[in-house]
Amino acid sequence: MTTKYPRATPDRAPRDYDxxxxxxxxxxxxxxxxYALNMFCMSLNQEANRDAFRADESGYLDAYALxxxxxxxxxxxxxxxxLRLGGNIYYTFKLAIFDxxxxxxxxxxxSGIEAEEFQQMMIDGGRPIEGNRTIADRGAAPAQEQH
Amino acid sequence: xxxxxxxxxxxHVPAVGAAIDHNKQNEPYWVPYFxxxxxxxxxxxxxxxxxxxxxxxxxxxxxxLALIPTFAIGVxxxxxxxxxxxxxxxxxxxxxxxxxxxxxAESLILDEFDMTIVNEMSVDHGLTVPLSVMFxxxxxxxxxxxxxxxxxxxxxxxxxNRCYQLGKAIRRAVDEFPGDERVLILGTGGMSHQLQGERxxxxxxxxxxxxxxxxxxxxxxxxxVPHTDYLREAGSEGxxxxxxxxxxxxxxxxxxxxxxxxxxxxxxxxxxxxxxxNA
Lengths: 147, 279
Fold this sequence. Notes:
The complex is a heterodimer. Chain A has helices at residues 28-43, 47-55, 57-61, 68-76, 79-84, 89-98, 103-111, 115-123, 135-140. By secondary structure, chain A is mainly α. Chain A has a domain at 24-100: Dioxygenase LigAB, LigA subunit (Protocatechuate 4,5-dioxygenase, Chain A), CATH 1.10.700.10. In chain A, helix 1 (28-43) runs parallel beside helix 6 (89-98). The longest helix of chain A is centred in the N-terminal third of the chain and has 16 residues, at 28-43. The radius of gyration of chain A is 16 Å and the shape is globular. Chain A starts with 27 loop residues before the first helix and ends in a 7-residue tail after the last helix. Chain B is α/β, with parallel strands linked by helices. Chain B has helices spanning 14-21, 31-47, 98-110, 125-135, 160-175, 205-217, 219-223, 227-234, 242-249; strands at residues 3-10, 51-56, 71-74, 78-79, 94-95, 116-118, 144-150, 182-188, 255-266, 269-278. Chain B has an eight-stranded mixed beta sheet with strand order 6-3-7-2-8-1-10-9, sandwiched between helices. In chain B, strands 4-5 form a two-stranded antiparallel ribbon. Chains A and B meet through helix 1, helix 6, helix 7 and helix 8 of A and helix 6 and helix 8 of B.
């Protein structure tokens, strides 16, 4: 969970889901911010594009109107940062597929634990809802590391 | 007239498709899940649907953020498996049912559900994994399919109630279709799971079991559950469960529960399945 990008402040009135911890709701505000980034990720559905990206990642990204932060987060594979910069997991996962990563490996990276630990957490019943309903909830318990 | 012979709710986890495609059904990780769905496969074999209406969502495969239909219905004769980044799944092409699909599209729009009509699209794991759950690895899928693609990625997804009402409209349309097709309807996705962010891996088994109860006995009540409850309690991707309400709406008010199973985990998700018949 090490990313230098802070969580963006939404450019809209507060909503009741804003206090769900560690969750980036793909609403209009988020989607607007991440459009070019997500469309870059989507392009990796095509084999010819995967080949072109593999050959020259930075050059390939020139075709997309990314911010400097988004471009860097793509090149660094900053999975949590990509979400904070407007990415949606179904789109950013295209980049993870390109890298040969599983959703569990990406989930581990985004939540700041090792992949084996994440896998074991799932086998043990997943991340518990207790302590993870609200940001305030989470402050009260070390829920992030709970199994 | 065509008739709805039942409904199935099931998760559509890609890892389940991969386990089937790569013959991992006998591996210790997968055995408990596949044992739990064996009765589903047995029921479907007996029920012999001619066509399945499958409510599912596309995961940045056929649709992107360039165009985001809330409800899209596939009217084509064939739907090829999508390349989701790994190359297409090695499963048969999906045969459509254009006469029923067009009848549904026309009937639903006149019934004030403004469907997007799709003549060409590929279908991703959201649709093909439920087929594998039911039919395993056949040479050809043993039934035709009407894909009903629902946006649940871009917020807001249609409400649970809108999905429930759409299911009722689908029922009215199927009941008027002049054929003798045996129609099975599926609601797919869920159950509780969150793929993204610091809360990735969230599972809420209590929510899932309550959902399974209420979809049987109190669908109207479940349909009223607001999005934020799903996002908070079932995880950001748990909101896919609204698609099960489409299936439930197409059944009678009173249903008989044939089978249910709940299994944690399949990959990053809580996996659920339910088989319902009209009572």
